[in-house]
Amino acid sequence: MRVAAILGPTAVGKSRIAVELASLLEVEIISVDSMQVYRGMDIGTAKPSGSMLLRAPHHMIDVVDPASDYSVALFQEQARRVVEETAMRGRLPLLVGGTGLYFEAVVFDLRIPPGSSDDGLRRDIEEWAAHDPQGLKRSLAEADPVFAQGDGLQNMRRVIRAMEVYRRTGRPFSSFQARRGEQRAIYRYAGVVLTLPRQELYRRIDRRVEEMFSTGLVEEVRGLLSAGGLSRTAAQALGYREVIDHLDRGISLEETMDIVKRRSRNYAKRQLTWFRRVPGLLWIEMEAGHGLGEYEATALRIRDHLARELGL
Predict the structure, then answer these.
(1) Contact 42, 237 (CB under 8 A)
(2) Four-way CATH pick for 2-111+184-310: 3.40.50.1370, 3.40.50.720, 3.30.930.10, 3.40.50.300
């Protein structure tokens, strides 16, 4: 089975180019964005516009209520089913987004360790992290020295998850993680990573953040909170957690926007770092200040690349 992909950092233009490609190839777009799965979280996750949704079938958008937790394991199961159904219709599944883990969960034989936020184990470990974070890290390093050798100990959410997996299964968290380059692809895939010159990318990110606030991000978050709230997973979405702080702690709107811009730029750097480690992707640097013609030209280039690699 063949799968295509358009990946890249936030604000680079992935969704726009994906619908341009849809006019050139028989594709159905499958979002690999960890937050576009939530209904009602539209502005802050930069979901495709209504006109884009009309130009090509889209999947894995608006699949769960924001008050519900959602996991990469559930995404893997649902997205793979969509991939197979799309292929059965004679169309090419096109994975589009910026969440590298979600892309890999679909394409590679990535085995997700079990876990649940519905029982008390995770909450107990979260309390441990709150009261004795260094003690938790030391215990995890003893249980999973391979994990401790990486940079995972710098991310408390990953520390909590790794200890949860160890306590739940008796196996180190690292034993579930295949090394990069050793993962087996379960589909024949080809794809591109879209990039921009760094300063142009940052300008686009800043402009997108400003547009999100001007088009009602604060009102969107306020409405979601009053309509049932956000799950712990959804509340971590970039932009939403900062607006929640603005509403709860009185952080000024100007400062909130600056924080979102800074964190979005840092997130873009992490996205690029992740995709550099994925084999078999063609990197395409867009031109600064490109217009509609550049979107069309890029879509043509992607079509030709996919034709060569996938035998279309």
Answers:
(1) no
(2) 3.40.50.300
Topology of domain 120-176 in CATH is Histone, subunit A (1.10.20)
Among 236, 240, 248, smallest CA distance to 209 is for 240
pLDDT tens per residue, range 24-51: 999 999 999 999 999 999 999 999 999 9
Element spanning 283, H or E: strand 281-285
In DSSP terms, which residues pair with 4 in a beta bridge? Answer: 94, 190
219 phi/psi in degrees, rounded to 5: -65, -35
DSSP string, 164-224: HHHHHHSS-GGGG-PPTTTPPBSSEEEEEEEE--HHHHHHHHHHHHHHHHHTTHHHHHHHH
Q: Classify 100 as helix, strand or coil.
A: helix
What is the rounded distance in angstroms from the CA atom of residue 30 to the CA atom of residue 128?
Answer: 38
Note the pTM of the prediction, 2 decimals. Answer: 0.84
Closest to 212 in 3D by CA, of 173, 253, 161: 253
Distance CA 112, CA 76 (A): 9
Q: How far is CA 287 from CA 18, 208, 230, in A?
A: 17, 18, 38
Residue 129, phi then psi, degrees to nearest 5: -65, -35
